[in-house]
Amino acid sequence: MNAAQEKEALLWGLVGVALFAATLPMTRLAVGSAEAPQLSPWFVTFGRAAVAGVLSLLYLLWQRAQGQLKVPRKAEWPLVGMTAFGVIVGFPLFLALALRHVPSTHGAVVTALLPLSTAVLGALWFRQRPSPGFWACAVLGSGLVLAYMVWRAGGLYLGAANIYLLIAMTTGAFGYIGGARLTPRLGAEQVICWVLMSSLPLTLPMAWLFAPADVAAIAAVSWWGFVYVALFSMWIGFFAWYRALALGAVRVSQIQLVQPFLSLLFAVPLVGERLDGVTLVFALAVIATVYAGKKMPVHQKVPA
Fold it and tell me: Which residues span the membrane (predicted)?
């Protein structure tokens, strides 16, 4: 990869990460707080996927007209379902449920561990053999996140919101693994579009079921939050991110480390949250742990 391609890859990667980083504060805007609830977390989850699913259907039809459409094989459909469970339902639903009760800055610290969680589950899924240093980083990162949650809860009781965040992180990691298995043959953009389009029989009726009865009662800013997560978090962001990975996966993947930090920064002007020093320290510590973990060797196969 020459200098121009590397620059383009890093630029697309930064665009993708920035779009994804605003997901947490925008989701918080969409669902509101426990004291002032807005859109249902269930509607935000299925509604955003339904909007992105319709756009994906149009994109796949366009790809077919161009003669570039690749259809998942019979053996690949379970992976499509696995990816949908993780990135269409699991991660966004439990994230939205959690953000009804905790600030998006809190969610940013917990979900900062997502890349390392994906690596851990990926190593187990693909029967890889991570180094002791990798496992040490995984344990340290998990310990930091748990310590932060305990500190915010004011005791050993984690509460439902933190449990939701842990489930979101785990299901999201499974979704990323499924997508990674499909990407080499289908191409990254078509993977997310097939996942979204094939989920329409679920997302459309569920979005209708959980749609607000009184649309006018929902604040305009909450609708803007919903539009953002539907268009950018669920669809356009993937195009920018996958384009970047196609140009230079190794260098670009490191940009993802700044995503939780950007989420913290975006939360201040978008949601009006306060960024305290302890939250910032924990976030930086988790990011540093994830960075170290990604540098640790992981052998491809477990010896027989």
Answer: 42-62, 77-99, 105-126, 133-151, 157-179, 191-211, 223-242, 254-271, 277-293
Query: Going by C-beta distance under 8 Å and a sequence separation of 6 or more, which residues neighbour residue 175?
Result: 82, 83, 84, 85, 86, 87, 88, 90, 91
d(CA 251, CA 51): 32
pLDDT digits (tens, 9 = 90+) for 246-289: 665 555 666 777 888 889 999 999 999 988 888 899 989 988 88
Count the Cβ atoms, other than its own, within 10 Å of residue 81: 15
pTM flag (> 0.85) = yes
Output the CA angle 10-16-22, nearest 5 degrees.
Answer: 135
| CB-based contact 153:162 (threshold 8 Å) | yes
Q: Which whole number is the average pLDDT over 2-15?
A: 78
Task: Let me know: does 272 contact 105? Beta carbons within 8 Å.
Answer: no
pLDDT digits (tens, 9 = 90+) for 56-70: 999 999 999 999 999
